[in-house]
Amino acid sequence: MAVGDGMALTEASALERDASDPLSAYRDRFLLPTGPDGSPAIYLAGQSLGLQPMTARAAVEAELDAWAGLGVDAWFEPQRPWFTLDDALREPMARVVGARPSEVAILNTLTINIHLLLASFFRPVGRRRRILTDAPLFPSDRHALTSHLTQRGLDPERDLVVVGPRAGESTVRASDLEGAITEHADALALVFLDGVNFATGQLHEIERLTAAGHAAGAIVGWDLAHAAGNVELSLHDWDVDLAAWCTYKYLNGGPGAPGAIFVHDRHARLDPALPRLAGWWGVQADHRFDNVGPFVPDAGAAGWKASTPSILALAPVAASLAIFDEVGMPALRRRSVELTGYLATLLDDLPVEVITPSDPPARGCQLSLRFEAADAMLGRLAARGIVADVRAPDLIRVAPVPLYNTFHESWRLADLLRESVTAA
Ligand SMILES: Cc1ncc(COP(=O)(O)O)c(C=O)c1O
């Protein structure tokens, strides 16, 4: 039953919805942190760090056992050689983001991957030298974009075009982004946007804005940190040039888990001469040890890899991707739209400002709530076993994650907020 179609918003009805949804069972596949009273916390911080899949520990232990039992030979053990373990994850990762396996690689972490991609794809030439991005802009993205401009002798004050919400509005209008892309068309080398904005939870129209960037003659890249594993993506069909994301948020790969990239086959296959920061891991596995000859990149996104992946860090990512493969993004997104819609409906009845768009296609599972004293409110929630986070100065982010959060937890959050805003 969809939100708003007549079902009472009572605690009993929330419990009923949990009991009747077959995906509710996936919660048991995750380890839930403990709240102050010793019972499981209401963990609504998957937008920051996803929970640990129950299978993660065994996956790490299997690699520790391989290390203990085989030592260096584990790199080439015939059944599951470490030497190509990252490649084995390309297919499930490609399914999460709507890509071909050749368009995806798992490597490093997000900011480093943005740097590797920009080294190849930010090619300022003459007047066409600017980067256009959206605000609020995540600090690391700002530093990365700025450093690529300054490295090439450009001036971020002039050459970084940041398009934010209008005065009095909280999220960016797609038409304003399109307008700015058109306005700067002759000067744009790169459009680089946040798929789901980290602060506001706004989901951008990725296909539409990619087309707008291409019409302006720019390369279009996306930071999908808050989109991968959260919303359905079709990066290949949407003709996205490049993207990068982390696996520690909605993909539950663990703190500091390896990141991933997408490079459209159009680039990776047609232009092996693209400049890149190369290393041996970007060469086809059976040629990595060649010590003469030029760098010949592996086909596709794998050609952007440079160095040895952390096998222990890949293990939980593999465990988590197996769960995503079981559920599939369409079913996960369906539940997510229901769950976040349910929380949004409950919050509608409270004196709480939700700045995330109310239209389900314009958001993922995160809702961002504005409070004058956000830190104090976060403290009150934490004392009652609710884990959320604050983005300064005044936003509390909560994400009912469809793999492990429940309708009842959303109900309890709204109930506590009602109590807290009335008491405040
Ligand atoms: C939108 C966004 N971009 C970049 C980063 C930086 O990621 P990393 O520290 O893995 O490089 C984050 C981290 O949370 C993020 O949310």
Can you tell me about this structure?
This protein has 424 residues and is an alpha/beta fold. 37% of the residues lie in helices and 13% in strands. The chain is built from 14 helices and 15 strands. The chain has helices at residues 11-20, 56-70, 85-88, 90-97, 110-121, 139-151, 156-159, 174-183, 206-215, 265-270, 311-327, 329-348, 374-383, 407-423; strands at 30-31, 42-43, 52-53, 104-107, 130-134, 160-163, 188-194, 219-223, 242-245, 259-263, 353-354, 367-370, 386-387, 389-391, 395-398. A 7-stranded mixed beta sheet has the order 4-10-9-8-7-5-6, sandwiched between helices. Strands 11-12-15-14 form a 4-stranded antiparallel beta sheet, covered by helices on one side. A two-stranded antiparallel ribbon has the order 1-3. Strand 7 (188-194), helix 9 and strand 8 (219-223) form a beta-alpha-beta unit. Helix 1 (11-20) packs antiparallel against helix 14 (407-423), helix 4 (90-97) crosses helix 11 (311-327) and helix 12 (329-348) packs parallel to helix 14. The longest helix is centred in the last third of the chain and has 20 residues, at 329-348. The two termini are 34 Å apart. Mean pLDDT is 95; it is low at 1-5. It binds pyridoxal-5'-phosphate (PLP). Residues 109-111, 138, 140-141, 194, 198, 223, 225-226, 246 line the site of pyridoxal-5'-phosphate.
